[in-house]
Design a protein that fits this description.
By secondary structure, the chain is mainly α. It has a single domain, classed as Alpha/alpha barrel (Mitochondrial carrier fold). The chain is about 75% helix and about 0% strand. It is built from 15 helices and two strands. It has a two-stranded antiparallel sheet with strand order 1-2. Helix 6 runs antiparallel to helix 15, helix 8 runs antiparallel to helix 9 and helix 11 packs antiparallel against helix 12. The protein starts with a helix and ends with a helix. One of its GO terms (biological process) is pyrimidine nucleotide import into mitochondrion. One of its GO terms (molecular function) is pyrimidine nucleotide transmembrane transporter activity. It is a multi-pass membrane protein. InterPro entries: MCP, MCP_dom_sf, MCP_transmembrane, SLC25A33/36-like.
Length: about 400
């Protein structure tokens, strides 16, 4: 006899043993709740008893309905986690593309504020006793810089580097979402996790996705950064291919991986974002499960509200992660910029770059360009994750 047959026989035996106890007292509270019709006919003459019976019946129906709806909700969440890898690959790229196009002007301003070339030209004069006042002034200055770039260099300048940015964003996000989802699937099958998702699993998947993505796309980001820092009055590069050619000719192939160490450090940012996003997504799903268990049927508006909530969760997760890990962005930009000093590279490595910036410009310089960075990355994450989810659902239904 198999294990499943033994389990079935054991359940049947337990049911047979429990029947005498369930039927021993016709007026027991258990039977009155499950079978309210067993109440004596005299009680039916009492209006309060009739109301109690109706309430018990309604309560039983709600519980039964709640079980059905909860099963449907859990099945829906299970289907959402069982996505084919190629779906993440395509959806991630499309989501990254949409986010990059809409937030390109902020990316240009952020990159310039991070670099030493434009640091004096766009030096911040924001000063306030309150954090709110300082943020408001930084926001105003960011918009002012966008206007100046538009006025002096033309509207196309606001989308400088968008070509290589898209060439970088699409594969980067495709690789990131694919690697993250695939790593989670692999870890779930291990004995350690036993099919359960945990924060530690999200940590490992996020780190692996960040390292793989940074290694694969660093040359593209280096070209994008140098194009964005290329001055309009004295242009050094004609286009992306010219920048690539001159970089390889003058600095060698190793130059394409400048700033890679800082990018690895930046993997912590995407990891923090993934962990926070997964936790908030879990909270949103738990709320949906509680409503389903109470017998509340989901409507189209509930699905839309949850989609906005998950998109907002992605933006909030990116905000926290950016504030925690932003200094690496400045260091990475400086390493890719590769300025010369006395005929030698000014920055030779990750730690050396940190020390030089801190010594010459102070601690606050590590947060140069933070305002446009947040103005870009927060809505970018909301658009990217929201679009990724929509395309994932659409492609999974094919």
């Amino acid at each position: 006899m198999g294990i499943e047959d033994k389990k079935i026989d054991k359940i049947g035996s337990d049911i047979n043993e429990s029947i005498p106890y369930l039927t021993s007292d016709e007026k027991s509270s258990t039977l009155r709740e499950v079978f309210p019709e067993t109440i004596t006919t005299n009680n039916h003459k009492n209006p309060s008893a009739d109301q109690e019976i109706m309430q018990l019946k309604e309560s039983a129906l709600r519980r039964k309905k709640g079980v059905v709806l909860l099963e449907k909700q859990l099945e829906k969440e299970k289907e959402e986690t069982q996505v084919k890898p190629w779906v993440h690959l395509i959806s991630g790229g499309l989501g990254g593309m949409c986010g990059a196009i809409f937030t390109s002007p902020f990316d240009v301003v952020k990159t310039r504020l991070q670099s030493s070339v434009y640091r004096e030209a766009y030096k911040s004069h924001a000063g306030s006793n309150s954090i709110t006042g300082s943020m408001a002034k930084h926001f105003k200055e960011t918009c002012s810089i966008i206007y100046k770039v538009y006025k002096v260099e033309g509207p196309r300048a606001l989308f400088k580097g968008l070509g290589p940015n898209l060439v970088g964003v699409i594969p980067a996000r495709s690789i990131n979402f694919f690697t993250y989802g695939y790593t989670k699937d692999v870890l779930k099958k291990t004995d350690y996790f036993g099919g359960q998702e945990t924060s530690f699993m999200h940590l490992l998947a996020g780190l692996n996705a960040g390292i793989v993505t940074s290694t694969a796309t660093n040359p593209i980001w280096l070209i994008k950064t140098r194009l964005q820092l290329d001055k309009a009055t004295k242009k050094q590069y004609k286009n992306s291919f010219d920048c690539l050619y001159k970089t390889l000719k003058t600095e060698g192939i190793g130059a394409l991986y400048k700033g890679l160490s800082a990018s690895y450090l930046g993997s912590g940012e995407s990891t923090i974002q993934w962990i926070l996003y997964e936790q908030m997504k879990h909270m949103i799903n738990n709320r949906a499960e509680r409503l389903a268990a109470c017998g509340c049927e989901r409507t189209r508006m509930d699905d839309i509200a949850d989609w906005f909530a998950r998109s907002g969760a992605a933006g909030f997760a990116k905000l926290i992660a950016s504030l925690a890990m932003y200094p690496h962005e400045v260091v990475r930009t400086r390493l890719r910029q590769a300025p010369m000093e006395n005929g030698k590279p000014k920055y030779t490595g990750l730690m050396q770059c940190f020390k030089v910036i801190y010594k010459e410009e102070g601690f606050l310089s590590f947060y140069g360009g933070l305002t446009p960075h947040l103005m870009r990355t927060v809505p970018n994450s909301m658009i990217m994750f929201g679009t990724w989810e929509l395309f994932t659902k659409a492609l999974s239904d094919l």
